[in-house]
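Example 3.2
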Amino acid sequence: MKRLLLPLLLGAALPALAEPFTLLETREPNIAALERYEVATPMVPYAGAAKAAFPQGLPLAVGSGLRFKGYEKATSALEFWSLTDRGPNVDSPDVADGKGKRASKVFAVPDYTPTITQLRVSLAEKAEVTKTLPLKQNGKPISGRPIAPGQVGASGELGLGEQLAALAYDASGLDPEGIDVDAAGNLWIVDEYGPFIVKVDGKSGEILQRYAPGQGLPAELAARQPNRGFEGVAVTPAGKVVAIVQSTLDVDGKTRNDALFTRIVELDPKTGAVRQFAYPVSAHFKKTGDMKLGDIVALSDTQFAVIEQGKDKDKRMHNDIVLLDLAAATDISGKQLADGRALEYGDAAALAAAGVQPVRKKTAIDLRALGWTAEKSEGLALVDGSTLAVINDNDFGVASELRGSSLKLDELRVADGKLVDKQGRAQAGASLGVAANGESTQLWLITLQKPLKELLQ
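Structure, written as tokens:
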């Protein structure tokens, strides 16, 4: 399939925003001010089956990562780096594959190019996308389609078009989920497929280097759950690149819901040295695999702020900002349990016997208590010592819509481009489409009463 650099319609008419800026009330003692901005974004051209519902295209989803860039000289507006993920995609049934099955996603714009963006926040006025920088490999735009089975970074997912036909794989495909910048101006992004750490030219969008499991990164990271690879990245003051795996590793397909930690990876780009640390799963999750980390931002060389989210044992959604310190944590690279198995198999006693000291962490801010409602708080940035910015991923404003069937998506399969039940029986009249999810992109500025680092004490 030919890869296209799809233009973003920066000048297109946008849907009216309810309130470009709102000063929110809060009674939280640690919060001095709370501001909410509806982000005005360009539109992604869309010509699919649901075009009538999206006559202007799909709103660009810029909330997969966030990092403070600086103040605009002329206006003192805040400027941020942000980025999109792999593009407009929605949930779909597994694809029947002989006697087995493969996970799938429907890509509403199959040739979409994952894009780095810049945001401007005019304080107490508005937030908007000002620049876009599509990612390139060897001068050619990449796509967000999955990587073929057998290649490094393959997730086992199969991309489908809206008519449920299989799409071509992309050996250069990326699913970006975090961004930061180093002292030389290079951008660093992470991805969910590999999971990869990628160095990018900040002016051209050209991919300069790609670190992968077994190729500069620990081979065990290939056991990340599909669509749960790296979710955030931070460059420390010393220049180390720190990436977080969204959820627990699924070693041999057996540990995703029982492993007591997910992994933090620290890469030194100057030497290639890598360290790994154990980030413990919070006790309120029923299954450990329910925890999902979002973005990460460096407060120092060892202290960080992380978004931790997911539904707890009582089905309550959490979106928490958690502070953590790596200073006393064990480098778990090369460590195993006493019986030779991966650390992910171990209970607390076995991990302690293996000499694993996890990172120290402390919940600092409950976003839900502040009125946050979006499921995916995926971007986190530190404007100054006491001001945070948080942004959500609105999935390009789309969700899947199953029509003409009493079954649920996970009770169906795709076979030869048709919807069938698990027994292979055709579902006459059933169809899967793309519908609006009604979610906008919001950026919140949270001003604390005291510096964020002090909350870790």
